[in-house]
Amino acid sequence: MSKDIKYKxxxxxxxxxxxxxxxxxxxxxxxxxxxxxxxxxxxxxxxYDEILLIFRGEFSKSTYTLETAFPKEHTIPQQAPKKSMxxxxxxxxxxxxx
Length: 98
Known about the structure:
This protein is mainly β. It is about 15% helix and about 40% strand. The model is unreliable at about 85-98 (pLDDT under 50).
């Protein structure tokens, strides 16, 4: 790895969907890691049941809430919109709409 600033990428990261087991119940969490070293530390600790999905690439942080998606003058639809995800392998970017 180079320390040269021109090769630095602050938007690279790793996102995982992880299954945890507690007693007879399962919970699922989305975890984010800044780099491979942090992800490997998590994996080696083994405090999870299973890593279901791993996404590596360039990510940007944004916030999604029902308040911003549906202004007060609108009502929230009875059926939630369908979830979709598009992965562009050339650019290593993920677009998800919920």
